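Slide 14.
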Amino acid sequence: MNSNDLTKTTDKMCELEDRRRGIDRIDWTIVALLAERVRLGREIGVLKRQLDSPLRVPEREAEVLDRVRRAARGRLSPRSTERIFNVIIDETTRGQLKEGDDV
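Slide 15: predicted structure.
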């Protein structure tokens, strides 16, 4: 490997590390946003119990999924986005449960 190749490799390694640090920052933000979503979900769960409403409302979940699929268009795979948000919705609903409840 000549010095030119070594420089290119070093530059690419630095670029790789920069991108990874960017992903690490995004991951931190995603975790903070998910924690906020679950916190709000818990508050909603309390209100739903006070209103004697079901924890899962299929129409509301369908609205959320439709909205995120539209938001993903041209930027992310709508199908992947839907899969991710199905998990997020499930976890948010779990956060609404009282001890002994089931989804």
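Speaker note: The chain has a mean pLDDT of 91.
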